[in-house]
Amino acid sequence: MKQNIYDDPTFFQAYMNLRKSGETYNDYLEQPAMKEELTDLGGKSVLDLGCGTGGLAKFCVENGAISVVGVDISKKMINQALKENQDDRIQYVCGPIEDFKGPPASFDLIVSSLALHYIEDYDTLIRQLHTFLKPGGVFIFSTEHPVVTARKTMKNWWRNDKGEKLHWAMDHYRDEGKREQEWYVKGVVKYHRTLSTLINGLITQGFVLERLVEPLPTDKGLMLLPKLKNEERRPSFLILKSSKKTS
């Protein structure tokens, strides 16, 4: 059964409170880096997987995309998207991203922000996405970095008696698969994959890897969230940009 943690009332409320604060890793680390890679949106048809409240979909149409299909498993997130980021150019679909059935070669761009680490069957999804893209189309996704998801306890910072962070512990890197952590609620499920699995999964399905980004925080982010300085010690996120061969 596919997890739908964002429809848990406790999780959803806590998550929305965090996002409304405007001082998150999304605001000053992951999203700026994602948007920097979306440089040519003019006239593009876009598929946004794990669209959440529709912020990235809205960014795409505001920067030239002619249409966006946003897909998310969470009914609460889709309803919030319809309140916050409703636009005639955006169509929202509520359902698991693995179950989305798009016409072959129908999108110029597929984007996914911090959703693929919730997906159990990565290879099958990548194979499906390759069919949705037009030749020359681009696929960009962000995910939690493998150094973050590797350790099975997902409690990685080792601290001294004063609570100061000493170093980042990593273990079980080659042992891919399910991880569980407590994030507002217990039992949030994610899937750990090695860097080679993430990249080779794209190459095997016919994608050409174009860019690999380990985002660093913006200057404003460092001022508002000093803990972001730890991104210099270990990366939280990974962004992979690839394209479908033209022939």
Summarize, please.
The chain is α/β, with parallel strands linked by helices and 247 residues long.
Largest sheet: 7 strands, mixed
CATH superfamily: Vaccinia Virus protein VP39
Query: In total, how many beta strands?
Result: 11
**Any idea of the CATH class?**
Alpha Beta
- With strands numbered from the N-terminus, the spatial order across the biggest sheet is 3-2-1-4-5-11-10
* Average predicted local confidence, pLDDT: 95
Q: How many helices? A: 8
Number of domains: 1
Task: Quickly give the structural class.
Answer: alpha/beta
Any idea of the CATH topology? Rossmann fold
Classify the helix fraction into a percent range.
25-40%
Q: Could you explain how this protein is built, in words?
A:
The chain has 247 residues and is an alpha/beta fold. The chain has one domain: Vaccinia Virus protein VP39 (Rossmann fold), CATH 3.40.50.150. Helices cover 30% and strands 29% of the residues. The chain is built from eight helices and eleven strands. The strands form three sheets. Strands 3-2-1-4-5-11-10 form a seven-stranded mixed β-sheet, with helices on both faces. The radius of gyration is 18 Å and the shape is globular. The relative contact order is 0.17. The mean pLDDT is 95.
